[in-house]
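Attaching the record inline, Q. Sequence:
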Amino acid sequence: MRAIIALSIALALSLFANVVAMYLIGSISASSAAKVVQARQTGAIDALKGRADQINRVALAADRDGLKLQAELRSVDEEAARRLQNYQAFVSGLPPLPQGCGPGKARVDALNHLTGADP
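Structure, as predicted:
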């Protein structure tokens, strides 16, 4: 008999806790709905949408700029490869250096020409 009474009390407490939880959930959702209505009236949602549009425009511009920078990097890389080939072709045509000798005027001139330096 005591077990039945204890279980009945536990069931009643559980039902009471569930009713309280449902009441609290209902008041929270009503409060949230009121906040959304208030935000719409104050224009906060429109302001957030405007910010999101602005962020999207910046992201698209960054993508376009990134593509431009990649194209410029490829052209710089191609120019560097071309200059290196020209230098190697010029230097390969020069006679070998004697043992213990510096690069000489022709090699220095080739390097200056490659780098665009004007001594």
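The CA atoms of residues 88 and 101 lie 19 Å apart. The first helix runs from residue 2 to 42.

More tomorrow.
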